[in-house]
Amino acid sequence: MNNMNPKSLIVIFGATGDLAKRKLFPSIYQLYEKGKLSEEFAVVGVARRPLSNDEFRNYVRQSVENALRQELSDLSFVSHFYYHPFDVTDIASYQQLKTLLAQLDETYHTDGNRIFYLAMAPEFFGTITSRLKSEGLTATNGWKRLVIEKPFGHDFRSAQQLNVEIRQSFAEHEIYRIDHYLGKEMVQNIEVIRFSNAIFEPLWNNRFISNIQITSSETLGVEDRGRYYDHSGALRDMVQNHMLQMVALLAMEPPIKLTTDDIRSEKVKVLRALRPISHDEVDQYFVRGQYGRGIVNGKEVISYREENNVDPNSNTETFVAGKLMIDNFRWAGVPFYIRTGKRMTEKSTKIVVQFKDVPMNLYYRTNEKIQPNLLIIHIQPDEGITLHLNGKKSGENMKTTPIELDYCNNCIDGINTPEAYEKLLYDCMRGDATNFTHWDEVAASWQFVDPISEVWESTKAADFPNYEAGSMGPKASDALLEKDGFRWWPIHYHQ
Ligand code: NAP
Description:
The protein is α/β, with parallel strands linked by helices. The protein is 32% helix and 20% strand. It has 2 domains: 8-149, Rossmann fold, CATH 3.40.50.720; 182-483, Dihydrodipicolinate Reductase, domain 2. An 8-stranded mixed sheet has the order 8-11-12-7-13-14-15-16, sandwiched between helices. Helix 1 (18-33) crosses helix 2, helix 8 (234-251) crosses helix 12 and helix 9 (260-273) packs parallel to helix 12. NADP nicotinamide-adenine-dinucleotide phosphate binds next to helix 1.
């Protein structure tokens, strides 16, 4: 197989849904446009609503045009798309799908390679995978891969159940669990920054780092996802997956090689080293929040409890801040603070690595308070790194001033970093599972998170809503760091 231009059939279950429209079709188009897909591919869309192939192709074309804000002049791309309407619970229809895939395999010379992408609600995952096997769609001469969207379970038990179900039909190495944060350019860059710079790795431990802060803030509320979100909340929606994955990448030991298995096994070790939080310690380590009314981007917005499909007395958290301790040699004593929430001041994902203070301040006579050195990794929307140092204030006798060394990845004209989904789809086609989550990671993450959600679900948060929309979360989130002598570094350092 030509590994750079993989050939395969991609079956998208849930092809008329939001994810397919906004992310999957535009990403497949980008790969095609960049010549990363050979002409030897076809996409089959599955959903219930009746559409002809032509109507579906038109729909795909519009989705791509809307996402890229440009018209497609060449329609050869959409000619690779086919639509096969059926209810995934209807067993008989899988046989017709099987016939279609066999025909397309011949037409496009795809060697029996198949990706089954489940862009549907998780309750269907088990049904679809078991039918794919029982009806013989997974019995192919080529490779077969399963791509699964989050959420992967609701807690450890349900995740384990789901895993057992899908493992009946797919082996672990054939399962690609999407965590789209792992497709982001700067998340992938964490590894490069750490392991290719001689100046960081020697300092990357509890002797030189005082704390690490990860913030992922959104300005949006729940939009039209109220029904899902009110049963999920920020802990399950963001912390169990994206936030813990970033912690693992920041904290892992250098892998022996940059292979999928070596990297994953180092990440799993971090997740296993997370200090477990017992029910009665939750308040000590974690803070929950829910947004009230407020002003975001100059506009008045309603509170979470007033949103569509949200219980007016909802106890669901839209904000989480937490302190994580990693009990291993490298990180003993270094808190990793995380926070994430909706309706916050600004959309931003950022990591701040705060180094310890110099052993002795020689500048105390000039009343100087030296700023700590910070390494800031900007994940989104800015992509780049900033290193905060101290320099001499020009002209003034030995006074210090903070200076910033800045590298902005997406400020350079012409550099348009690929969408996470584009990279992840391409990885999946090439059989590179490094940036997907292994079951062991999912399991360890749920085991860490479960006691927290158990406490939060069984006790009503008396102070909800406890942060104003447009703010950086409840006061208790600031207090979490203050009691350790730290503070959240602002999203914009100059504030
Ligand atoms: P969605 O907009 O609700 O789409 C669901 C799709 O499933 C539609 O195409 C629907 O089409 C189809 N469908 C529903 N029941 C069906 C059935 N019984 N048989 C066949 N098709 C059926 O959902 P989504 O937002 O795209 O999300 C899909 C998955 O991705 C979910 O697991 C979600 O958690 C995850 N996800 C989504 C996003 C996002 O940005 N949207 C982000 C992260 C993860 P018909 O009504 O025509 O059948």
